[in-house]
TrEMBL record:
This is Large ribosomal RNA subunit accumulation protein YceD. Residues 133-148 have a biased composition (Acidic residues). Residues 159-169 have a biased composition (Low complexity). The lineage of its organism: unclassified sequences, metagenomes, ecological metagenomes. Residues 122-169 are annotated as: Disordered. It comes from bioreactor metagenome.
């Protein structure tokens, strides 16, 4: 503490004990936090401009350090406290602590949102299931002959043109 013309200047270092939990794995945490404090407490009878409403005031010969200390501690608190820098957190499916079980896995599951589609198959899948020779056919090899591909394409285009109305009508 130092007496100045406006009031009393309080400077110091405060150590506080923190208790909480890791933001990733929810493990309980305890830590010490050191906070620098510097605050000017103006005398009670000192006139202050309206823009200096936030100045701390002395009450007689007493100083209330609680608001000053609380503000300094809150500003220095970690936003996401971690038990360690490389904390793996919790498994999103079952909640297991991945720090304790680093090789933790689940089988290849189907996303519940897509589960209703699991029974659907395409015609090609059904044909491949009934004809084993077709199942081994590579789709790129099926169109290996360009003449066949052009012929199939021409049939498709002619079929589409047959149902079309004349443009002038």
């Amino acid at each position: 503490m130092e007496s100045v013309t406006e009031g009393v200047l309080v400077s110091g270092l405060a150590t506080v004990r923190l208790e909480g939990e890791c933001s990733r794995c929810l493990t309980p945490l305890e830590d010490d936090l050191e906070v620098d404090i510097q605050e000017l407490f103006v005398y009670e009878d000192q006139s202050v401009a309206d823009d200096d409403e936030d100045l701390a005031r002395m009450q007689g010969e007493l100083l209330d350090l609680e608001p000053t200390l609380r503000d300094a501690v809150v500003l220095d608190l970690p936003f996401t406290p971690l038990c360690r820098e490389d904390c793996a957190g919790l498994c999103p499916e079952c909640g297991a602590n991945l720090n304790d079980e680093p090789d933790h896995t689940h089988g290849p599951g189907v996303d519940a949102r897509w589960g209703a589609l699991s029974g659907w198959t395409t015609d090609r899948d059904a044909d491949a299931a009934t004809d084993p020779a077709e199942a081994d056919t590579d789709p790129a090899e099926a169109d290996a002959d360009p003449a066949e591909a052009d012929a199939r394409l021409g049939e498709t285009v002619e079929g589409a043109d047959a149902g079309a109305a004349p443009a002038g009508d």
